[in-house]
Amino acid sequence: TLLLWLMRCLRCPVAYHVGDLCVAAGSEMITNAAIICTNHFNAKKGYSHHSHVNVSWCFVCSKGGQLLCCESCPAAFHPDCLNIAMPDGSWFCNDCRAGKKPKYRDIIWVKLGTYRWWPAEIHHPRNIPTNIQHLRHEIGEFPVFFFGSKDYFWTHQGRVFPYMEGDRGSKYQRTGIGKVFKTALLEAEVRFKEIKIKREAKEAQENSRKPPPYKFIKVNKPFGRVQVYTADISEIPKCNCKPTDERPCGFESECLNRMLQYECHPQVCPNGERCCNQDFTKRLYPETKIIKTPGKGWGLISLRDIKKGEFVNEYIGELIDEEECRARIKYAQENNITDFYMLTIDKDRIIDAGPKGNYSRFMNHSCQPNCETQKWTVNGDTRVGLFAVCDVPAGTELTFNYNLDCLGNEKTVCRCGAPNCSGFLGDRPKNSNGQTAEPKGKRLKRKYKRRKTEGKKSDDDCFRCGDGGQLVLCGKKTCTKAYHLSCLNLTKRPFGRWDCPWHHCDVCGKNSEAFCQLCPNSFCNAHQEGALRPWPPTGQLCCQEHDEPEGTDNRDRDLNLETNATPEAASAAIAGARLPKGSRKAAAGAKTKGSKRKAAEA
Question: pLDDT digit string (tens) for 171-185?
Fold first, then answer.
């Protein structure tokens, strides 16, 4: 509905939704549907407060020096901080090029006259005192309320930039204007948090009513140079099903094409239009419904009973290549986007159901799923279908195992609630022996094959079992550890950059601060207490899963600590020894807030 009600600028193509939420502060209202936007602000000569001002520090590193200044707002950057060369002529920052403007109720920093940058709030002209309304102002100017002093003034985009949580401003004196500035900082902080809480509550309420927006499509849409393949009709295989069968080529039949995961073609199949192996082409999906699930966001349930082996849905989205995939992941990382819908078809193509897709994009992960992905050949092209692996009663949530390849700083906790839950997305589910999983708060005890030479490490050996062979190397520059795929419970090599288990807490998956020196177990700040102890033969820190050598008692351990380590090292070891954390660079494709990249492998 909002898309139908727009306020349009009379002088240019700019348009905003009706209301104060989207419109740029300083736009002049002509009628309910007509405005003159802030792009038409004209600075008057002789008016010092109409001039454009830039900050004297870089917005990235906060240091001074030779800066690249935006021509439209106060932003300034070191070219090196943006990884660009100093351009010739005028330059505009990314926000200004994207059309981002100050809005009403924004908390901002303002430069007025010779005063320092001061925190203020943009007010709507109808909500300010009458005498302030009557002050002379131009199109593009808006009233700001200064915290601390309670004053008002009209200003424009060239003299304001957004207030960020944690901003402190420059140093201030304890008396006079410095005291007022301190009060202004406290008021701005309180007001910013108040507005943030209200906005988040409103967004949560809106998100609870309907899923985030996306474009519904029925077939895969190629993006950029990606191609959709089509076979010649003479190349499509013919099955041996008989037209007299009750459901020829159905999922319960012995159709040769179905066994080989080929879809029949109506011009080739001997059953013609009666063929029941054309689910992809005819989009024969059981009726489903999008629902809000507890703790897992949106999900998809079936509205009728589904039999084992039955076609449930096709995974639909944009077909992108790896270069575009990494570009989208980088964008998501920079914009704190944490939800991904990428699924790999082959080495050249990936389905991204994020911006465009069908209902299958709402299916959640489960370590004990009722559906699975299968790659089928449909008219010469590879498509990904979701098929039931068991009988699914009506009203049951539809799930499949994402088989994620995760890149980034942290692992994602799995909330599927299955008895064999692995605890984290991307980890292989536990073997089901009739025992239920331990509660999430407790650390799952794991048994590892004893290393042949515990305490002695070699970069040519697996850090988990101590044997050589084909190994997967950790992608972290400061880490030289390597592992067998089988020791990681993986069947294929991780996609892109991969950080080994030693860098993720065994309990919660966050960055580790305390490390076992004998195996990949490690722990974060919250879970390191009591998790590590000195290993008697060497005094190295190890976890509780390593048995002490025979003939070693507590006195031997104490003596070993006393003779082989300095007092500082001994006390550090006993206290849990927080080891220094290696520097971490963000992966090219990663998961967010510390963005993570998830690419499901069909």
Answer: 666 667 888 999 999
